[in-house]
Amino acid sequence: MIMNEIFIKEFFSEKGDLSKNIDGYRVRQEQIDISILIDEAITHKKKLIVEAGTGIGKTFAYLVPAFLSGGKIIISTATKNLQDQLFTKDIPMIRDALKVPVSLAMLKGRSNYLCHLRLENAMIEGAFMTKEDVTHLHLVNQHAKHSIDGDRAELDTIPESSSIWPQVTSTKENCLGQECSFYKECFVMNARKKALAADITIVNHHLFFADLNMKEEGISELLPKATTVIFDEAHQIPDIASIFFGKNISTSKISEIVQDGFQIYLKHMKDVSDFEPILNDLEKANKDFRLVFPRESNRYPYQKISSFSRFESSYLELVEKLKKIIELLALHKDRDSEIEKYFDSANEILKSFDDWLEDKDNNSIKWIEVYSQSLQLNNTPLSIADMFARHINNESTSWVFTSATLAVKNNFDHFKNQLGLIDADSVSKESPFNYAEKALLFVPKTMPDANHENFNFAVVNQIYPFIKASKGRAFILCTTLKSMREIFTLLQDKIETDQLDYPIYLQGDGSRNHLLNKFREHGHAILIGSLSFWEGVDVKGDALSLVVIDKLPFFSPEDPVLAARIDKINQSGKNAFMEYQLPNAVITLKQGAGRLIRDEFDKGVLVICDTRIIDKPYGKRMWQSLPPFARTRDDLEVIQFLEKI
Q1: First to last CA, the chain
Q2: What secondary structure letter does DSSP report for 112?
Q3: What pLDDT is recorded for position 327?
Q4: How many whole angstroms separate alpha carbon 426 and alpha carbon 529?
Q5: How far apart are CA 209 and CA 219, in angstroms?
Q6: How would DSSP label each residue in 331-374?
């Protein structure tokens, strides 16, 4: 331990090995302190929670002790972007600086890898596809012949939303495993083999908890047993873990059954005349079930579903059509292993629908999420603390949880209680950036109530002079999609009237990376997004000088999961607003505020248009949890600050 501490201090010193690999390297004492604490946690198999402000360099801080430990390491992140950065840049840099010969693997969920068998089947079915799908299919087919990893991210010319992807990737339900004729060339299996053999494996939170869920069900594991697990972007774990510790089934699974059915029909069952019409009936029943609900995306608690008169009849019709497929397949499943696997998948999906309907667990909330093309039926635990704690309470593994936003005024109780980490050590280190000189926080003196119908109009009027002073170069972060679209329309009208060359990019008009690249390249653009742009977005330099947050990010109490958790907390005699809703809002607000200053040379203004942060008693906790910006309520001071930048 003492030797490692000495080594870490030397490694991160001004003339240490890391400085030789980074131009303009600067020593961060906070980084050294965190790295030493993580080394201690790894050595003594402890649980450690680390909040590290922007600019500390938490990634290097945990990588160095992880390398020194010599054990099997799993690093789990929330985003593919961070996965890619770790794999291609950060870990190779630390490995070279340390001169430690560790092997490295990156493992994604199976939907990220091309499947040879499904690609072959899709080529057979190609005549029935749209022109766009056929074009995409041939690009995928050519790529699969030369690709080493089969990662669909290598094909960035095909949109993520393309309907071809489900047809050329596999799922747990339709994978044939060792019975597949392409098993030896399988991209998924090869990726898993590399992960099992590697010293360090990089995964994302979804895959990590999917693996945990499989272990719970007694199914063989995807991930290797690790001596150390490090969760980066750990603030997302409670929500992601809730999904995997619960039960859910989507009508998109029915769409896959229909799609796979047509492939099975063309390849193995053309002589079964009943098969195609039954597939068409199932597809129609699936679409009719979606049409029970309004077009807009929304969430509904199970108790409110009875208000949709056609829900029960459409549900039963869908299940009945699925049963007909299963009855037909039972007569033919011995023909081929693909048909048998397809039969098993259909049965598994039927069981999931039945389980969801019959589940009456009082410790979970049953609800439906409505998407544009599908429905997801969910049963989510009210608390995952006991389940998660049970999985990580072992003496052979150390656990590190790190993010820039985990605490509320340096208090970690909220995060600990969500995950059952009551006995975990915790530390918070503030960003080394000079916020008082580099950044200004502005809250208007007067604004309508946040729920007032004219609030968005007032937001645009308030920020428009700031946007002109900063010459665009602005993020506008909204709490709802509705507000995002309304602010976009109002702001666009003003900019067009004044004939300003500040293009406005709106979330949804392209992939996040595509919009960010356009934003950076133009240099005077405005980007308006909802909650998916509040974190994981990194724009350094002159392209961004103004970040606007429309409202404090309190999630709607009408959300079925949130409402149920609020009820349970209040019924226990506690205050759900202060103990659950407010901490969640603080952490989200800190994420949004963190978009402004990304390195020591950045300058800018953060505008929070919601005066509740000043006017309400609870606002003080939110205010004090933000970085130490210089603060003002004077519009002219903001304009002068922006014009100087």
Answers
A1: 46
A2: G
A3: 96
A4: 33
A5: 13
A6: TTTTS-HHHHHHHHHHHHHHHHHHHHHH---TTEEEEEEE-SS-
At 226, the amino acid letter reads A
pLDDT of residue 217: 58
Task: Write the pLDDT tens digit of every residue in 565-588.
Answer: 999 999 999 999 999 999 999 999
* Amino acid at the residue 355: D
Candidates 292, 295, 296; CA nearest to 312 is 292
CB 90 within 8 A of CB 179: no
- What pLDDT score does 219 carry? 54
Given a contact cutoff of 8 angstroms between Cβ atoms, the answer to whether 364 and 563 are in contact is no
Separation CA 18–CA 21 (nearest Å): 5
pTM for the complete prediction? Answer: 0.90
* DSSP states of 281-340: HHHHHHHHHHTTS-SS-EEEEHHHHTTSTTHHHHHHHHHHHHHHHHHHHHTTTTS-HHHH
Q: Scanning the structure block, which residue is given the tokens 């949890």?
A: 625
Q: What are phi and psi of 43, to 5 degrees?
A: -60, -40
Q: Return the higher-pLDDT residue of 198 and 532.
A: 198
What order do you get walking across the sheet with 228-231 strand by strand? 104-106, 200-204, 73-77, 228-231, 398-403, 47-52, 425-429
Q: Among positive and negative, which fits the CA dihedral 99, 73, 36, 234?
A: positive
Q: Helix and strand tally (H, E) in the chain? A: 28, 18
Strands (E), 28-77: 47-52, 73-77
pLDDT in tens, 434-476: 999 999 999 999 999 999 999 999 999 999 999 999 999 999 9
Q: At residue 125, does pLDDT exceed 90?
A: no
Among 554, 547, 555, 537, residue whose Cα is nearest residue 609: 547
